[in-house]
Design goal:
By secondary structure, the chain is an alpha+beta fold. Helices cover 29% and strands 18% of the residues. It binds zinc ion (2 copies).
């Protein structure tokens, strides 16, 4: 790396790289806090984690969505739905089901950029403990 001139637009600091590797290896839709926690040995600042994750979303290599008032990060860039356990709050990727309607003329939108679909319920382990 020494003396290597890096192009500014994809430049990653050592910490930026650590954060990228951490979020890409956490396949459970982590929050910034969870990414930060997984880097506790590395001495990376929380603000640096937030900044790096926001940059990756801007670059289109990471998706983000709101879950219970918290931003979660998603490494799966293919269209998919989510299944959420309301007890343990785990989030799984599930295939997007075929949905009947609304018909295009019923949508008050000129374009559709994104569909957000979440199934909520109890996972088998939490259902057993009810
Ligand atoms: Zn559960
Ligand atoms: Zn997902």
């Amino acid at each position: 790396m020494a003396g290597n001139k890096l192009r500014p637009q994809r430049r990653r600091t050592r910490q930026g790289l650590l954060i990228e590797q951490a979020v890409m290896s956490l396949r459970n839709h982590p929050s910034a806090r969870a990414v930060y926690a997984s880097l506790s040995e590395e001495g990376v600042a929380m603000a640096t984690v937030y900044r790096q994750l926001a940059r990756m979303v801007e670059e289109g290599v990471l998706n983000s969505f709101e879950h219970l008032g918290e931003t979660r990060y998603d490494t799966n860039l293919e269209p998919h739905a989510h299944a959420v356990c309301t007890a343990c709050e785990q989030i799984w990727d599930v295939p997007l089901p075929k949905i009947e309607g609304p018909e295009p003329h019923e949508l008050p939108l000129a374009t559709i950029e994104d569909v957000d679909l979440t199934f909520r319920g109890l996972c088998p382990a939490c259902a057993r403990n009810q």
